[in-house]
Amino acid sequence: MPTALITGITGQDGAYLAEYLLKHGYDVHGMVRRASMANFERIEHLRDQIELHQADLLDQLSIINLIKDVSPSEVYNLAAQSFVPTSWNQPLLTGEFTALGVTRMLEAIRLVDPGIRFYQASSSEMFGQVREEPQDEDTHFWPRSPYGVAKVYGHWITVNYRESYGIFACSGIMFNHESPLRGKEFVTRKVSDAVARIKLGVQDKLFLGNLDARRDWGFAGDYVRAMHLMLQQKQPDDFVIATGEQHSVRELVAYAFGHVDLDWQEHVEIDDSLLRPAEVNTLRGDASKAKQQLDWTPSVTFRELVQMMVDADLERVAKELREVLL
Ligand code: NAP
Ligand code: F7E
Q1: Which one is the CATH code of 3-177+219-241: 3.40.1010.10, 3.50.50.60, 3.40.640.10, 3.40.50.720?
Q2: What is the pLDDT of residue 254?
Q3: Per-residue model confidence (pLDDT) at position 326
Q4: Distance, CA 181 to ligand 1 centroid (Å)?
Q5: What is the dihedral of CA 310, 316, 318, 320, to 10 degrees?
Q6: Which of 36, 72, 80 has the alpha carbon at shortest distance from 56?
Q7: Could you tell me the distance, in angstroms and rounded to a whole number, from the CA of residue 235 to the centre of ligand 2?
């Protein structure tokens, strides 16, 4: 039975990947950091099928011991400080988690078992101020946030350990991917949650920043499939994972409110404090290489994704309201 270790298993992608690997016959282990209260909501339904281990991206020894204990055949490094605005408030911590954390994972693999296959969660934020449209594996990086800069480091250290030590290390340059499990501070989930609350009468306004930003949004369930496919190849390589379609935040908002017959202009207001010091205005990926070499294509359209998220939040908020009334 293949054994996978997932860092960031409590996050959106970690939960989808754990479920996917269990379905494919893996023995699944997850790395979790110590917290005063457990934070396992996204993986609650999998708890009796996976094993969790305490370690931290900041602590080299804890990672070495973890790799020794689990003896994985594949490591998926999804843990990171992943929220772009926080990276301006906490640039050093973001660098420690999101950049140096990758080296700590790779060093542990190099020391304990260089035969382990490694996946690094790279990001379209590395393209930042884009040099060409659409972006593919050869597009130059110009990151626009401390998060993007940290991801560029994580990407290149992954390539470097492949070239220096022959480690089977792959980097997935993933464009935005969302789901009902997305954190509520990210724009898609912030919108779907607000639409549900406004429709059910417990909120009236939604405050947003830049409505003109354009993103290539896909479904997280499709993207974890690509992570796994990368580690099953004959040779390690890097792949852009994207839908190839882009929409503005304004389109997202209009479609999400329209789905429940609401007029977004009556509810959305701009809050300048949500504008970023340096914005990534447009992103659109070209995943032709992944299609050719991994046979990967996305299965969920933008509209299906938005509907899925709004419907899930409607159901959740309605349930919460029923529980309050009981
Ligand atoms: P997420 O929901 O924010 O999850 C991040 C995970 O990292 C959480 O499990 C978190 O644990 C863990 N973590 C953070 N700091 C840690 C530390 N010091 N030690 C151990 N674990 C730590 O992120 P996601 O959306 O699933 O994304 C997964 C990865 O893909 C991230 O690296 C992200 O930067 C990258 N990425 C995401 C997207 C996207 O659109 N979703 C696109 C490109 C790349 P806690 O639960 O304890 O906080
Ligand atoms: O912002 C604009 C905002 O925070 C998307 C992470 O998973 O994907 C994610 O990073 C856009 C930006 O995602 C609000 O200015 C407007 O242009 O949902 P987001 P992100 O910054 O693109 C990449 C690929 C990652 O790797 C990251 O880890 O939406 N926007 N108004 C807003 N964004 C937020 N969060 N909140 C607003 O009120």
Answers
A1: 3.40.50.720
A2: 98
A3: 76
A4: 12
A5: -150
A6: 80
A7: 33
**Which phi-psi region, left, alpha or beta, contains residue 71 (left: φ > 0; alpha: ψ -120 to 50)?**
left
**Ligand nearest to the Cα of 127, by number:** 2
The pLDDT value given to residue 325: 82
Mean pLDDT by 10 residues, the chain (326 residues): 98 98 98 95 98 98 98 98 98 98 98 98 98 97 98 99 98 99 98 98 98 98 98 98 98 98 98 98 98 98 98 98 88
What are the residue ranges spanned by the domains of the chain?
3-177+219-241, 183-215+245-284+300-325
> Using CB atoms within 10 A of its CB, is residue 321 exposed (0-12), middle (13-18) or buried (19+)?
middle
Nearest to 55 by CA among 102, 7, 17: 7
Q: Is 185 in the pocket of ligand 2 (CB under 6 A)?
A: yes
Query: Distance, CA 102 to ligand 1 centroid (Å)?
Result: 12
Binding site membership of 267 for ligand 1 (Cβ less than 6 Å) = no
DSSP, collapsed to helix, strand or coil, labels residue 179 as: coil
What secondary structure letter does DSSP report for 276?
-
